[in-house]
Amino acid sequence: MAETVIEVRGLRNQFGSHVVHENLDLDVYRGEILGVVGGSGTGKSVLLRTIAGLQRPAAGSVRMLGTDMETASEAELRGLSERIGVMFQDGALFSSLSVLENVEVPLKAIPGLGTELTEALARLKISLSGLPWIAGDKYPAELSGGMRKRAGLARALALDPEIVFLDEPTAGLDPIGAAAFDEVIRDLSRSLGITVFLVTHDLDTLYAVCDRVAVLAEKRVLVTGTVEEMAEVDHPWVKEYFLGPRARAARGAIAAPPTKG
Ligand SMILES: Nc1ncnc2c1ncn2[C@@H]1O[C@H](COP(=O)(O)OP(=O)(O)OP(=O)(O)O)[C@@H](O)[C@H]1O
């Protein structure tokens, strides 16, 4: 039985009178890549932020890596934040710092690490994210959107997290760049055993890398399962999303990958 690393129960999020989530339950298992999908405004990013501890829920509980985030002490929450990494849509990099310096930011919080080791670890994360060595010395404004995303991923990986949260990692990338990014995510999860919580609209990503999918609708997680299982779900949004022409194309791409050379 897989270990549950995130357990959400009875979650409510609201902004004023606008209830985004009500009675939402979700389990995430160690080592899996979970794709979170749902219509625009269903609260995928709010859910990510709540679980990652960046936003407090109005009600309900989030247990991450065995710690109840509501009752945890400051020190426990700090410890927990070192075991997760978050990558935002635009990479959320500091524009005045080079890529290397950006990735070094979380590492500098480790006492006694030293300048050389900090730089070596940051450079390792930069290359794990699929960026060339030289990219470390560039500033965010000098990079393409895809490279900035990889730099954001490198920073999310800085502290060897057990769980990585990715908010629309392939949004705005061309199809080749998006497929390459999918591959990086899959390789990282498989080789380092990282659990990935991935918010996406990208059907290709769902079919290519996700072990399971969680569909947000009606203010809660309506259903979870494999992408294949989604085709059997009798709900109008799920049917339209997973049985529409784009889903057919994404499924077809997996069934018949392009032949080489
Ligand atoms: N800080 C905030 N203050 C007020 N309302 C907010 C805030 N953050 C999110 N919301 C609202 O919560 C709802 C869910 O937002 P969220 O960004 O999580 O949706 P989403 O499913 O990620 O959407 P999309 O797919 O378009 O990115 C939206 O109606 C949004 O306007």
From TrEMBL:
The keyword Protein biosynthesis does not apply. GO terms for molecular function: ATP binding; ATP hydrolysis activity. The keyword Disulfide bond does not apply. InterPro entries: AAA+_ATPase (IPR003593), ABC_transporter-like_ATP-bd (IPR003439), ABC_transporter-like_CS (IPR017871), P-loop_NTPase (IPR027417). It comes from the Bacteria. SUPFAM superfamilies: P-loop containing nucleoside triphosphate hydrolases (SSF52540). PROSITE patterns: ABC_TRANSPORTER_1, ABC_TRANSPORTER_2. Residues 6-243 form the ABC transporter domain. Keywords: ATP-binding, Nucleotide-binding, Transport. This is Phospholipid/cholesterol/gamma-HCH transport system ATP-binding protein. It comes from Tropicimonas sediminicola.
